[in-house]
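Hi all, long-time lurker, first post. I run a small reading group and we've been trying to get comfortable going from sequence to structure in the token notation. Rather than ask abstract questions, I figured I'd post a concrete chain and ask someone more experienced to write out its structure so we can walk through it together at our next meeting. Sequence below, copied exactly:
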Amino acid sequence: MGCFPRALRFWTALVLVVYWCGIHTAPAFAGLAPSRSSGVTEVSSVRDADRIAVQRALEHKVVAQKLRDYGVSPEQARLRLASLSDAELHQLASATKGLPTGGDGVGTLIGVLIVIVLVIVILKLLNKEIVIR
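-- Answer (accepted) --
Happy to help. Here is the structure in token form:
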């Protein structure tokens, strides 16, 4: 500290305090960012929204397998989907809202296993004994 003159240290500290106070009291502006629709899922009507919901449900593994079990190919399902009326399409889209949107549960299983391993590691680090009977 001896290499800097006392006046330089004082003015530097004063400038920094004023600068930090100015930053701290400056108002922050925040707001919601507007959403943009991508070219792939652009929804321009209720029918398009219903069609997209049904297509996503048809892409689900369980639904696709059931359709194959009944002898319906994915191409036949898409052709039939295109020929549905607005009311039928809306009814089908409403019925698909209860379907699971995830995969087959592997992610959940991996998450549970990671939590169990973390608990065991923490207990070992704390020198606690783990007894499984």
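A couple of things your group might point at:
The chain has a mean pLDDT of 79.
Helices lie at 6-25, 46-58, 61-69, 74-82, 86-96, 106-125.
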